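Case study 2.
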Amino acid sequence: MSLSDLVKNVSQELLTHNIKLVTAESCTGGQIAKLITDLAGSSAIFERGYITYSNQAKIDLLAVSQTTLDKYGAVSAQTAEEMAQGALVDSQSHIALSVTGIAGPGGGSEEKPVGLVYIGIAYKGHVSSYECHFNGTRENIRDQTSHKALEIIQAILKNSASKQDK
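Prediction:
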């Protein structure tokens, strides 16, 4: 599915279920928020977005723990989960999406290579994260991250809706 079709589908799912989204983005630099808000009427489904590129921004705006950053690093499942939780707590939204990773071309290591991304979700009292490995240019990695994050949101919303129908 194209990214633009995915954005439309996710937006429709959010609107249908009267759910507002908040984003907390690091490696994508606000790209996901931009994609959502490119659609007219997005104020009905998008509450706010945080761009927390630095560790200090993650601490100040999303209440990510310094201990988490010291122990696991900014690019980790733990940080992605704390980012999502922090964004949700500080907003009037129902679901939070966070992304943190290494878009490159530099900054990677053997342990955490370029293209390693964690996507965090906080929804209905549950917090989870997804480890992803992308490749290509910086732009490719950011686009793949945005696409995957929106696919995850779409799947969660569809799964939640199907459970309500039963």
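DSSP finds six helices and five strands in the chain.
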